[in-house]
Amino acid sequence: MKATAKDLRFHSKELIDTVNRGEEVIITFRGKPCAKLIPYIEKNDEITKNELFGIWKDNDMIKDVDEYVKELRKGRY
After folding, report:
1. Less CB within 10 Å around the terminal CB: N or C of the chain?
2. CB-hemisphere CA count at 13 Å for 75?
3. Digits of tens for pLDDT over the chain (77 positions)?
4. At 73, is the secondary structure helix, strand, or coil?
């Protein structure tokens, strides 16, 4: 569905109802698309504390990633 910025301003409840039904709404400004309203989906699965260190999860030499990174960042003296 497409809606103008004016529609967003004056008919926001109807647009939010549309999004809650699972439909996406493209907001246009001066005839050009500028935003998209999509349904919000909350993640139920817990994100790990160090998800960026996933490549080390199977490394037997490094048991605690936090401790390893702390040692790397520690000063030399």
Report:
1. C
2. 1
3. 999 999 999 999 999 999 999 999 999 999 999 999 999 887 765 555 655 556 666 677 777 777 777 888 887 76
4. helix
Write the DSSP assignment of 8-56 as a string of letters.
HHH-HHHHHHHHHTT--EEEEETTEEEEEE-------SPPPTTGGGGGG
- The alpha carbon of residue 64 and the mean position of all alpha carbons in its chain are separated, in whole angstroms, by 27
Residue written as token pair 């504390």: 49
Give residue 8's Cα distance to chain centre: 23
Q: Which residues pair with 32 in a beta bridge?
A: 29
Note whether 65 and 49 are within 8 A (CB): no
